[in-house]
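Lab notes, practical 5.
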Amino acid sequence: MKSEKISELTTSRLSVYLRCLNQLAADGERTVSSEGLAKKFHLNSAQIRKDLAYFGEFGVRGVGYYVDELRDHLTKILGLDRPHNLTIVGAGRLGTALADYYRAAQSNFAVAAMFDADPAKIGTLVGKVEVFDIKNFPEIAERYNIDVAVIAVPAEFAPAVLQQITVSGIKAIMNFAPVPLKAPENVKLKTVDLTISLEGLAYFLAQPSPQNGQRR
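Output from the prediction step:
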């Protein structure tokens, strides 16, 4: 792998490539070229080759890529060759919906524990996952070997929750709370703000239509 820093956009595209390769494997395809991959899944063939070149030479001249072999490489590059224990902080509607999603999804991420501050929720089960008191986060996170945390609490509580998570030594965090958060430099924090995404769509709808003039 090249020594230069790999951008988050590149690693995100690797996830897309892996998903596409999984589909090809399910369809019984054994090989694929970058052009074939791009055409089938509406990708950019030059970008595919550039992204993969950061991590090695995977293609075979005259053949392209062996689907199973490239899947294995991307799985290891993305750290998906081992399971990850996930916790969700917030057992409200969003938190329980996320827990249901990960329980049904076939992935390397398993929800091992949930947390909340509401006494009515503490001790209950979401599926088969117990909801613990957020006050006990450090020992429970250690007990279940948590390495990824998801924040699904109201905005006003998110900063305090982030601090509890980072103090516990967890280095990978996804934030669904609608508030910007700042994590220590050695912690990877990704924020998913559905409102911002919807407002981006609203902006698109508000623009003049090429055929019909201003949308009313």
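Observations recorded by the TA: The two ends are 52 Å apart (CA to CA). The first strand starts at residue 31 and ends at 32.
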